[in-house]
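REQUEST ID: PR-0412
SUBMITTED BY: lab tech R.K.
PRIORITY: routine
TASK: structure prediction, single protein chain
INPUT:
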Amino acid sequence: MFLAMLALIIRAVHLQIFDIDFLQKQARSRHISKVKISAYRGQIKDKNGESLAVSAPVESIWVNPQYCSFSKKEEKKETRASKKIKADCARLDRATKRKVAQILGIANKKVERAFNANSKRKFVYLKRRVTPGIANKIKTLNLPGVGFIREFKRFYPTGEVTSHLLGFTNIDDRGQEGLELMYDSQLNGVAGSKLVIRDGKRRVIEEQNIESIKEPEAGQDIELSIDQRLQYLAYRELKAGVSRHKAKSASLVILEAKTGNILAVVNQPAFNPNTRRHLTIERYKNRAITDVFEPGSTMKPLVAAAALDGGFIKRRQLYSTKDYKIGRNWVRDGHRYGILSLSNVLKKSSNVAASKIALSMPADYFWRFYHDLGFGVSAAVGFPGEASGVLPEYDGWSKFEQATLSFGYRLSMSVLQLARSYTALADDGILHSVSLLKREKDEYAVRVLSAKTARTVRKMIEKVVHKDGTAYQARIDGYRVAGKTGTVKKASKGGYGSEYLSVFVGMAPASDPELVIAVLVDTPQAGQYYGGQVAAPIFSKVMAGALRVLNIAPDEEKTMNVLLKK
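STATUS: complete
OUTPUT:
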């Protein structure tokens, strides 16, 4: 007995003195665990500081299924702690589980599985990211084995209005689409961590003395060039236009003419990023930036500008619009226009005259001009899935192929690229880069036309909006407007089908443009399909509203005279 006691004393001394570090480390590994502290994701704001995407604190509810499981030894051994656990577990009947399912809005089977004591798992999410109100209802039930984790949920105050632009995050608050994906590394914060003490059932038993290892670091805020007021205006009018013309989809872009800043990007149909059930990529992709189309007659002012600037045509030159044969192919106009001046070629949108202008230029010069305008290359805004479009190489062009490029076939671009190309006409020959981030000046602007040529063509396409032009419905009371329509047959297998794209791109005030707006309506099915009938009225309403919102003064001569008299 003495030897046994001596052995126990020696063993105790060994454990308490010599093995103390090892044993304490083992104890900590079993009862002290590291818990992640979620970091706040940065906000996305518009140019005026209005929040477009914010993160709200929420809680995720989890369950330890083994909390209510007991070994045979634990069943026999009754302690005060085990009695309490058994009493708590006895309250977890079917009625209580059904109540949990009802509060959380989940299936009863999911709750039953989560509380299955025979499970081999020790951690199961009951529901992620619930509101504090719902979490508090669950807390009042005091359920055994249930824990709560503080997280953040992304919320989009503007809903559908900015859905295609902002995109959305996943359940872990990481960007999946749009700007949320594009700027995920900046927006996403750095999670912190802390130590908690748990019992054998993995329950936190001491929180008042938690040791903080690392404080979470909030993500950076992103300030966009987008103006929320113009974004809503464009969304509203585009949605009304799609409904009125029973169109499949539509896109619209607003640019600042002298900086290239993107003030609004909208698409229809839209989606609500706050509730994303049953969404497909066709619904949430940003068509204005990621999809391409053949731009049609919106290319004609650019072709005229290229030929004028290169000295291949004269400003007062006249053109016969009689059916024009190029090789084995014919180019025809929809109406008989007779002899037209260059200004009236753009006003009436003559394909025949545009073809002759295109063929007056060498193929390499023509291609280079289109390339310099940004066609066939990305606009480099950095948006996920951004389109580059197609501009075929000039080697091997036939004359007919070169002619078709003048009225917008055989090349493709996004609505953003189209709007960008018109900044060259709006800002006296200077082509601007485009940006989704707020900036005061465009450091990457390049001159692609002389100021004289840009002003000349801009003056010509003002007539497109006159009463006998193709876009009378694009006019705005009090303002001079310059722009161009496009009505394009949609490509299909084996050629072109019976569906149309309706396009309009324009600028105002035309005397010194501040804004450029491009509108595309895909497959209008209510009878009208010409760009001047479908896209131009949408342009007019959006541009008129934007000019008022931004307090841009009228420049129409009659209106200015009235204002001066006042």
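NOTES: The chain has two domains: 55-222, 228-565.
REVIEWED BY: pending
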